[in-house]
Amino acid sequence: MTLSTSRIPLIVLSVFSAVALGLPHAALAQAPAQSTMTAQVENPPADAQKTASGLAYKIETPGTGTVHPTDNDFVKVATSFWTKESAEDRPGTFGSPTRPLPMVQLLMPGLHEALAMMTTGEKMKIWIPEKQAFNGAPDKPKGPLMVELVLIDVVPIPTTPPDVAAPPADALKTKSGIASKVLKPGTGAAHPKSTSSVTVHYSGWTTDGKMFDSSVVKGPAATFTLGNVIKGWTEGLQLMVTGETRRFWIPGKLAYDDLARPDAPKGMLVFDIELLAIDGNK
């Protein structure tokens, strides 16, 4: 959603916050667990399959889907991982299984390779060599990793509009500088007011074609009051009716340029917005 004064749920490209839950040196009672995990992490079983990169893997549960994720997709994935120093009953995890991760931005080549082989519902255990893991990156787990993966869902990235750089000549323009074009006519007759609560699906791009936020990717539609969003949305959505999908080109001055938000995109922004409901009425 594009709130002007509160937090904006932007898609953050570097999404991993992997924290290896290591073994305290003073915990002598845990030494056998460390030794056991060293052997498991360093030595894939004999029946594990191996790729040319050195990745080893075993399929524990076959997938039910048919689509393999690509760099044009986000994935929802449940993970548990172990380093050589991990206690067996204290694995780390990569993010939340409900938060879609962009395939193209995965930090570990080995994880990217494994997910590209999987289909929805599949469970796989993988052994990632250090060079295919974090490869010595600071503040990341060191050495090889053993990871259990479940591919929960594959979410295609909405296609970047061909006209993100500038509005077309036939776009409707308002006095404030907003340009818009109806992509799908609506079925309703009423327009929201500046005080209305609206439910929408949306995706937003910068003018160089980079998507920075999308409710379509994240899952649930967004509901908010029009008075609490950027000025371009407050004005633009009042042009719409329920069921309509419209593309907006919003000048930076009506978006985030005047906000002290280092994480917010600047300049003209392009949004595809589908208006699903006004004040709860579809």
Structure characterization notes:
The protein folds into two domains: 28-156, Chitinase A, domain 3; 172-278, Chitinase A, domain 3 (Roll). The chain has helices at 31-42, 109-117, 215-218, 231-236; strands at 49-50, 56-61, 73-82, 101-102, 123-128, 145-156, 172-173, 179-184, 197-206, 211-214, 222-225, 245-250, 269-278. With 282 residues, the protein is mainly β. The chain has four helices and 13 strands. The strands form two sheets. Strands 7, 8, 9, 10, 11, 12 and 13 form a seven-stranded antiparallel β-sheet that branches. Helix content is 11%, strand content 28%.
How big is the Rg?
23 Å
Low-confidence stretches: 1-35
Q: Bin the strand percentage.
A: 25-35%
Number of strands: 13
Any key phrases for this structure?
4 helices, Chitinase A, domain 3, 282 residues, elongated, 11% helix, 13 strands, seven-stranded antiparallel β-sheet, mainly beta
How are the SSEs placed, and which strands pair?
Elements: H1 31-42, E1 49-50, E2 56-61, E3 73-82, E4 101-102, H2 109-117, E5 123-128, E6 145-156, E7 172-173, E8 179-184, E9 197-206, E10 211-214, H3 215-218, E11 222-225, H4 231-236, E12 245-250, E13 269-278
Antiparallel strand pairs: 1-2, 2-5, 3-4, 3-6, 5-6, 7-8, 8-12, 9-10, 9-11, 9-13, 12-13
Short note summarizing the structure:
The protein has 282 residues and is mainly beta. It has four helices and 13 strands. Strand 1 (49-50) and strand 2 form a beta hairpin.
